[in-house]
Design brief:
The structure holds 3 protein chains of 3 kinds. Chain A is of the alpha/beta class. Chain A has a domain of about 50 residues. Chain A is about 20% helix and about 40% strand. Chain A contains 8 helices and 19 strands. In chain A, the strands form 2 sheets. A 10-stranded mixed sheet of chain A has the order 2-3-4-6-8-10-12-14-16-18, with helices on one face. Chain A has a 9-stranded parallel sheet with strand order 1-5-7-9-11-13-15-17-19, with helices on one face. In chain A, a hairpin with a 3-residue loop joins strand 2 and strand 3. In chain A, helix 2 packs across helix 5 and helix 6 packs across helix 7. The longest helix of chain A is centred in the last third of the chain and has 17 residues. Chain A is globular. Chain B is an alpha/beta fold. Chain B has one domain: Rossmann fold. Helix content of chain B is about 40%, strand content about 25%. Chain B is built from 10 helices and 12 strands. A 6-stranded mixed sheet of chain B has the order 6-9-10-3-11-12, with helices on both faces. Chain B has a 4-stranded antiparallel sheet with strand order 2-1-4-5, with helices on one face. Chain B has a two-stranded antiparallel ribbon with strand order 7-8. In chain B, helix 6 packs parallel to helix 7. The longest helix of chain B is centred in the middle third of the chain and has 15 residues. The two termini of chain B are about 35 Å apart. By secondary structure, chain C is of the alpha/beta class. Chain C is about 25% helix and about 35% strand. In chain C, strands 4-3-7-9-12-14-17-20-22-24 form a 10-stranded mixed sheet. In chain C, strands 13-15-18-21-19-16 form a 6-stranded parallel β-barrel. In chain C, helix 1 crosses helix 12 and helix 6 packs across helix 7. The radius of gyration of chain C is 22 Å and the shape is globular. The chains are: A alpha/beta, B alpha/beta, C alpha/beta. Chains in contact: A-B, A-C. At the A-C interface, strand 18 and strand 19 of A face strand 23 and strand 24 of C. Strand 18 of chain A pairs antiparallel with strand 23 of chain C, so a sheet runs across the interface.
Chain lengths: ~400, ~260, ~475
């Protein structure tokens, strides 16, 4: 298969690491995901193959998108940009994860990978080099907000991997930004381990410049009494796929997810989430909003798995969708799989357009139709964007969303 | 007194208006003229078409005008968008004000007020100046400042929603206000507040159409004319005592008019 | 803590309809090939177009694969180990009920469906199907006066061939799915209903399906046509004896509603479910679909699914006509090792079409109860609306409840709303009822039937009462 050859001839990889070898091995037997499987049946075939079209050799590793200025109080890291960090302060420390621990952890993860379900990670790990992997161990309190960037440069397929260990009783705000330059593909895999009593406000903002693609996978393991809050936003990608897998390893943890995806032109963005309650007293509150305009296609598939051991789980999942054009389409499939009996689970889904009565009401007050739509959209987005941590204001996200085409 | 009013040009002229929704005729030839300073009341049973009339004047997209015309200050408005009508000074007070989750009331009021001010060639107000203006108008309807920070009508009680409507009317300073069952769902105190608000906002240059079921709002605001609607038509027009007679005799009494006209 | 055993007892009512009728039957040899298909057609003296229909379906079936997407776990079916035609031996041509074998009449008597003139139900016309053939249809003359045709499908092939040729396979094409193709090749009997223009059927129509032989499959086919401005309510009941082998039931039901017509199709499915260890029981793989062809036509499915070892069933509506309406009301109860994968498809094609889905799943024991549904708004479905509500009730910590709603929209001016929730019978609720002097079993069944109320309200009256009782019986012993 072409992609396998491409990876093998990748100039930036001199010697294949053990992990790369292992993942390549798995890919070699079935290089592409099964297009008929539940996880991939709606993926646009030509867009997915376009993802793999670009060269895996990094031509221009230097990234020139003007970031908003970093503020004094933030810590900013760019994956692949020699980001060595070793901060030891009185209250906290942020250290590079040791090579051993990093490899050990990733191997553990790989051991339970499934070809189809984890294809994005297999691709990421087989492409990735040590240079493009960032591993962090965070500990302490009063930690300044952290921003982490991943990007793909023009005409290339780049893979970035992030591994974060949040130690006991630790509490952070983390904003992850994924950027795709013109004609590029970014494979981003993130592994997050939240130890007992830790808590994170995690923001994920991904957007492309022009004809860029993204495969973004996020694996979170939550130990007891941890709290994971995710606010995410994906827009302006020719093709983007966001996979979220969260496991409450012993239950007794809290997960809040608010996601948003916007598609225009002929873009396709899909979000897949799988929340696994592996113990009692788990909590989940999830909402995913999508907006599809022009000829675009928005997809949401969520599953909540509540086995027998997960008594007293309280889980709610909502999929809200706005379909704004005759040529756009939306697919949504929120699923529940429940064995435990003493649980509170619900899910809901709606697909509609902007509320006409609301629009009329605003228009009778002299507000023009475009303005009224904008007001409505911004309130639709507000719930999600307000959940994204770390000086999101500097990113003018809402303005970007509402004013760009 | 009435003749004196009619020396000026009418604000609103509804001429033999017929309209339908989903091919179902709702209005069947309604005519109505409002001059500056006049207060008209439109009464009638549920489903007689009075709410539809108000929505059509405001430009609701669900209705088609099949015949007749609506003129505002002498010019036909049939082809105007709802927002253009609002900007030019037509105000509709909703029977059921719409809840708009997530959109802040203050922002909503400011954007709409500025849209009207722009039309009037008045300076648009920034947040600070607008707050000043709104504070003054809040007094009129005895609303608390806290209402401004909430989402538009969301979680408002029935009375609060209606007061919010009158607040909007006060801010937009319309030429004509059509108030659709503004009295429904109000207790007597709230009714007085709303009525006094309406009276303070209206003047000799404005027109008001009150759409109502009941006499009690008309006890607070005395209309110059009362129209009774039935099956998409105005079947009787009289002065304020018509409302009292209607209250006494009930709508069965008006059924006779239809028989007579037929 | 609620006494777990007490609850288990409540769900364990023995299957009442498990007896076998000892009657001489005519069976063809086991197995399936082209000759068998020809033989069935020949036995039924069918015209050539029908034989061709069967043969084409058989060819398609041979090329198809048994579906596995529902993730149902069952032993592989050996299609060569099934008898595809089995009929009680009786006189060649039966002219009146008196000539029907008394054993058969007795069987239906025992099932609560008396067929004889003296005893027959007064307000329902019944078509009784025993294994592969229809035994009797009551009230035929009375219905004929109104122009309503109600007979077995074999008879319809003979007497109303034009209607069969025009409509058979137009809603569920032979190639639709594996089991529909199988049915199209080997279907034996079933009911045929035709309601002419402007007629409101004067009574409810009902088919009662009885599987008697242990080794034969049942492949019945039902076709209901409601012409312009007509309406009909149709009920379907099913039972089978207890065998320790699995019996395959692969039926196809097709409904067609023209302008302003309405069809209400209600099912109480109580096939033998197998024993507590999951031995035996019916494999119920059914394709039911209605086509709202005409403007303002309406098709309403209501079902109470309590039986079968495995149920695989998605009564669906194709909403073509402008302003046509599709409805699906379902209660599915599973206990022990039963597996039910059921739901509906609402395909909105025409403008202003509306659909409502209400599904209540109750899972007890080690059973798996899944709702699987599709709501689709096509590009022309402007102003279309759907509302779905899928609730699950779990009884005991071994049962599983799954919800898989597939939702797709290509029309911005349409609305889809889906809600689902999971609950159980809480101790507080039980305690509250018990503290008011209500017996434990009574309290449980009150809550279950309360949970199912929205669906029961849709059933014809006699059915609703029966369904309520059935549920209470089935549930005995399972609340923990």
């Amino acid at each position: 298969m072409e992609i396998i050859e491409k990876i093998k001839t990748n100039k930036s990889i001199d010697n294949l690491t053990e992990i790369q070898k292992f993942c390549l091995d798995k890919l070699e037997s079935t290089p592409l995901p099964n297009p008929k499987s539940e996880q991939w049946r709606l993926a646009n075939k030509s867009k997915l193959s376009n993802f793999l079209d670009y060269s895996v050799n990094e031509k221009n590793p230097k990234f020139d998108t003007p970031f908003p200025n970093t503020s004094q109080s933030n810590i900013r890291l760019v994956i692949g940009d020699n980001c060595l960090i070793n901060v030891i302060e009185e209250n906290y420390s942020i250290k590079q994860l040791s090579e051993d621990k990093l490899v050990k952890y990733i191997k553990e993860q790989i051991s339970c990978f499934n070809q189809n379900e984890n294809w994005s990670e297999l691709l990421n790990l087989s492409l990735n080099s040590r240079k493009n992997t960032l591993g962090l161990k965070i500990n302490g309190s009063e930690i300044p907000p952290i921003e982490i960037f991943s990007h793909a440069s023009s005409n290339s397929l780049n893979a970035k991997t992030l591994v974060i260990f949040l130690e006991k009783n630790c509490d952070i705000d983390l904003l992850q930004v994924n950027l795709g330059k013109d004609n590029s593909s970014l494979s981003q895999s993130t592994f997050f381990c939240l130890e007992e009593n830790s808590s994170v406000n995690h923001g994920v903002v991904s957007y492309g410049e022009n004809k860029s693609n993204l495969l973004n996978s996020l694996n979170v393991i939550q130990q007891k009494n941890s709290e994971y809050n995710l606010g995410s936003l994906h827009f302006k990608f020719n093709y983007a796929r966001f996979e979220i897998r969260i496991k409450q390893s012993e239950g007794n943890a809290k997960t809040n997810i608010k996601g948003m995806q916007i598609t225009k032109k002929d873009e396709q963005i899909s979000t897949y989430t799988k929340i696994d309650f592996n113990g009692p007293n788990g909590f989940l509150d999830q909402i995913n909003k999508s907006l599809a305009d022009d000829k675009s296609h928005a997809i949401f598939e969520g599953s909540i798995i509540v086995p027998k051991i997960a008594q007293k789980t309280d889980a709610s999942q909502l999929s809200r969708n706005l379909l704004l054009s005759n040529l756009a389409q939306i697919d949504t499939k929120p699923q529940l799989e429940i064995i435990a009996d003493d649980v509170k689970c619900k899910h809901g889904a709606t697909i509609s357009q902007l509320n006409e009565e609301e629009l009329f009401y605003m228009r009778t007050r002299g507000i023009t139709l475009p303005e009224a739509s904008k007001l409505q959209l911004s309130s639709y987005f507000q719930e999600i964007t307000s959940f994204i941590p770390v000086s999101k204001d500097r990113w003018d996200l809402l303005d970007k969303l509402l004013n760009e085409n | 007194m009435q003749n004196k009013m009619k020396e000026s040009d009418p604000i609103l002229e509804v001429e033999n208006l017929s309209a339908s929704t989903d091919n179902l005729p709702i209005l069947k030839g309604v005519s109505l003229t409002v001059y500056p300073g006049e207060i008209h009341a439109i009464m009638g049973r549920n489903g007689c078409g009075k709410s539809t009339l108000s929505k059509i004047i405001a430009g609701h997209p669900s209705y088609n005008i099949t015949n007749g015309d609506i003129k505002f200050l002498g010019a036909s408005i049939n082809s105007l968008e709802p927002e253009e009508r609002a900007q030019s000074g037509i105000f509709l007070g909703f029977q059921y004000p719409i809840e708009i989750p997530g959109v802040s009331n203050l922002e909503f009021l400011r954007v709409s007020t500025n849209a009207r001010r722009k039309f009037l060639n008045k300076e648009e107000l920034d947040t600070f100046d607008f707050e000043e203006l709104v504070k003054e108008k809040l007094e009129l309807v005895k609303m608390d400042h806290a209402f401004l920070s909430r989402s538009v009508n969301q979680g408002f009680s029935g009375g609060e929603k209606k007061r919010n409507e009158i607040l909007q009317m006060a801010l937009l300073e319309p030429k004509i206000a059509i108030l659709d069952e503004t009295d429904s769902g109000l207790d007597i105190d709230a009714l007085r507040i709303v009525a006094s608000g309406i009276k303070k906002i209206s003047n000799t240059q404005t027109g008001i159409i009150l759409i109502t079921h009941y006499q009690r709002l008309l006890d607070e605001i005395e209309p110059n004319y009362v129209h009774v609607m039935s099956d998409g038509q105005i079947i009787k027009t009289g002065e304020s005592n018509l409302a009292l007679e209607l209250e006494k005799k009930g709508y069965e009494w008006t059924d006779n008019f239809i028989k007579n006209t037929k | 803590m609620v006494n777990e055993n007490l609850v288990k007892d409540v769900v364990k009512e023995p299957y009442k309809y498990g007896f076998v009728t000892d009657i001489e039957t005519e069976k063809i040899s086991k197995g399936l090939n082209e000759d068998i298909v020809r033989l069935i057609s020949q036995k039924k003296e069918e015209p050539k177009y029908l034989l061709d229909f069967r043969l084409k379906a058989f060819k398609k079936w041979q090329k198809m694969k048994e579906p596995d997407w529902a993730g149902l776990g069952y032993k592989k079916i050996d299609y060569q180990d099934i008898i595809y035609y089995s009929a009680p031996k009786q006189k060649e041509k039966i002219s009146s009920l008196d000539e029907v074998d008394p054993k058969l009449l007795e069987t239906f008597d025992k099932l609560g469906i008396p067929l004889t003139e003296q005893k027959k139900l007064t307000n329902v016309a019944v078509d009784a199907v025993f294994d592969s053939v229809s035994i009797a249809t009551t009230f035929r003359e009375e219905l004929a006066e109104h122009g309503v045709i109600f007979c077995s499908i074999s008879e319809a092939v003979k007497n109303h061939s034009d209607l069969i040729e025009k409509y058979l396979g137009t809603v569920v094409p032979a190639s639709d799915n594996y089991f529909a193709a199988l049915n199209s090749a080997v279907f034996s009997d079933g009911s045929f209903v035709f309601i002419p223009k402007g007629v409101t059927c004067p009574m409810d129509l009902s088919s009662y399906f009885r599987i008697n032989s242990g080794d034969s499959g049942q492949f019945e086919r039902t076709l209901i046509i409601a012409e312009e401005s007509s309406s009909v309510s149709y009920l379907e009941g099913c039972t089978a004896p207890m065998f320790d082998t699995n019996t395959l039931h692969a039926a196809v039901v097709e409904l067609i509603a023209l302008d302003d017509a309405s069809i209400k199709y209600s099912t109480v499915q109580n096939w033998y479910a197998g024993d507590e260890e999951g031995i035996g029981g019916i494999f119920n793989f059914v394709t039911k679909r209605g086509k709202c062809l005409g403007k303002r036509s309406k098709i309403s499915w209501s079902q109470v699914e309590t039986g079968s070892a495995i149920t695989w069933k998605y009564p669906s509506c194709l909403l073509l006509g402008e302003e046509s309406v599709g409805e699906f009301y379902s209660v599915a109860l599973t206990n022990n090792l039963q597996q039910a994968d059921t739901g509906t498809k609402m395909i909105h094609i025409g403008p202003k079409t509306k659909s409502t889905i209400v599904s209540k799943g109750i899972s007890a024991g080690n059973s798996i109860n899944s709702y699987r549904g599709l709501v689709k708004m096509g590009t022309k479905a402007t102003g279309a609306r759907n509302y779905s509500q899928c609730d699950s009730m779990l009884i005991g910590d071994q049962a599983s409840a799954n919800t898989f709603p597939y939702i797709k929209s290509q029309q911005p001016n349409s609305e889809i709303e889906h809600e689902a929730s999971t609950c159980r019978i809480s101790e507080d609720q039980l305690f509250y009822l018990q503290s008011r002097g209500i017996e434990f079993e009574e309290a449980v069944s009150m809550m279950v039937s309360g949970f199912c109320r929205d669906v029961f309200n849709q059933l014809p009256m006699e059915f609703a009462a029966e369904a309520d009782k059935l549920l209470a019986l089935k549930l005995e012993g399972s609340v923990g």
